[in-house]
Design a protein that fits this description.
Length: 489
């Protein structure tokens, strides 16, 4: 029998960990304590005097390099998020906000043409860029990006930087499991690259590199990488990563790679950013980091979450047990329809369950008198059959096991939804504690939602139409009211 019929926890495992899933989006920037925005401080063409000296020097460097000029419509400013880009004049929707020549990009191409290019050619792209970041950081004054590295923070609020005490605040959550998995992955990659690349090439790395250094570079890369450019899967764009995220922006079509002037007498590829919103002078420029990321993704990648419930999600992990007597048949069907022995379904707050999830659940639960559907004669039709209830026993089983799994997962959290909501209502939480409470409340809300869906399904079991009834109707052997039709000779 399938794993669905065993323990409830078998379908609520740790979600699949993809440590390099950060190669998707746009970064947040250095965050300070929240302050009110002074319009007077951002309407001038010069940087705000409250801006840290490191940022002012970075801005001057951009001017000296010709990246910004008097025509640039934005500048750094103090904003509620800490530091961001604000408009120095009115900006229309889709107006160009900034352009950065390719020679300032930090990406695998920059690594390949650097002194460490030859020893990084066989590494994973993110590892080669991580080593490049560390080497340029330690080069100090000799680095082309010296002023950029000066403005980078020592860490973010990403959960990869949380202390053990802080991580206890997300006990029971999938985010904790994912965070620990990512940290273990990065630690292993560091130990491997230290042995194979760093130590044998001390001429390129004459400075001590620690695990903490590697995590710093990994976190910077994870939180600042763009990837929605033509032929660019992983690129950091100095200056562009001052821009903050807003849920008000509902499109992602803001970053472009174009050909243009990269100086007085040269042309190059440019990273071009356009404003997705119309703005007045003094207002902050925002973009959308990633519409598809959950709050847990945002916490892991950027170190913040959105306060609403829409980004809350929970990952259901479903699998076909190898001990299932029909394992081979079920796996063949799953693979023919884009799934596998293990399949992950992200359930989002307020959204219906994925249709494929119900099909997979019914497949995993098939057995007993329903097992005839696994015969080869039905191979081209069974996935279609699984869109609808197969039998009362099959539907009842998936309802029971999913509900039990939800209850088991909810019991693993040390707090209730009510306790979390009381903490949020009272306020005065640190940034990381506020994230932790929001994440654990969000996961529990989604679990309650899933449980509610299958509870309602249980109440409908006696009224659902199952495969045999549908088949008999198709053959004309059952009437519309369910009565059996007898055909006489």
């Amino acid at each position: 029998m399938a794993s669905l019929s065993t323990t409830p926890s078998s379908i609520l495992k740790t979600p699949k960990i993809n440590p390099i899933s950060f190669l998707k989006s746009k970064p947040s920037f250095l965050h300070f304590k929240k302050r009110s925005l002074s319009l007077n401080s951002v309407l001038s063409t010069e940087t705000d005097s409250k801006i840290p000296q490191t940022v002012q020097r970075f801005w001057q460097w951009l001017k000296d390099e010709g990246v910004v000029s008097a025509k640039t419509p934005v500048k750094p400013g103090i904003v509620p998020e800490g530091l961001g880009l604000v408009a120095v004049r009115d900006i229309s929707r889709n107006d160009v906000v900034l352009e950065v020549p390719k020679k300032f990009w930090i990406n695998p191409d920059a690594v390949a043409t650097s002194e460490i290019g030859s020893i990084c050619s066989e590494l994973k792209p993110w590892i080669s860029v991580t080593l490049f970041l560390l080497r340029e950081r330690f080069k100090g004054e000799e680095s082309k990006w010296k002023y950029y590295f000066d403005v980078l923070p020592e860490s973010t609020n990403s959960t990869i930087y949380w202390s053990e005490e802080e991580l206890r605040e997300i006990e029971g959550t999938q985010l904790l499991s994912t965070t620990l998995g990512v940290k273990e992955y990065v630690q292993n990659e560091f130990l491997k690259v230290e042995e194979e690349v760093i130590l044998p090439n001390k001429q390129f790395f004459p400075f001590p590199l620690t695990m903490d250094d590697f995590f710093w570079a990994f976190g910077m890369l994870r939180s600042r990488a763009f990837s929605r450019l033509r032929n660019q899967n992983l690129v950091i764009i100095p200056f562009a990563d001052l821009i903050n995220h807003s849920s008000k922006v509902t499109t992602e079509d803001h970053a472009h790679e174009v050909r243009g002037a990269a100086g007085l007498f040269s042309w190059d590829f440019l990273f071009q950013l356009r404003s997705p919103l119309s703005l007045k002078a003094g207002e902050q420029v925002f973009i959308q980091y990633d519409l598809n990321k959950s709050n847990a993704d945002m916490a892991l990648d950027y170190g913040f979450i959105e306060p609403g419930l829409e980004r809350n999600a929970f990952t259901l992990t479903l699998e076909i047990s190898e001990s299932d007597e029909f394992f081979a048949e079920k796996l063949d069907i799953a693979e023919l329809n884009g799934s596998g022995v293990t399949t992950y379904f992200d359930i989002k707050h307020g959204q219906i369950l994925p249709r494929a999830m119900l099909q997979y659940l019914r497949l995993v639960a098939l057995g007993g008198t329903d097992a005839f559907l696994l015969e080869s004669i039905f191979s081209n039709k069974i996935w279609e059959f699984l869109e609808l209830p197969v039998s009362r026993a099959n539907e009842e089983l998936i309802c029971r096991v999913v509900r039990d799994a939800c209850k088991s997962a909810l019991s693993a959290y040390p707090t209730t939804i009510e306790e979390d909501e009381k903490l949020i209502e009272e306020g005065n939480l640190s940034a990381r504690l506020e994230m932790a409470v929001g994440i654990r409340r969000g996961e529990k809300k989604v679990l309650q939602q899933i449980d509610g869906i299958f509870k309602d399904r249980e109440a409908e079991l006696d009224f659902l139409e199952y495969y045999q009834e549908r088949r008999l109707k198709d053959l004309g052997l059952v009437g519309e009211q369910g009565e059996i039709i007898f055909w006489e000779q």
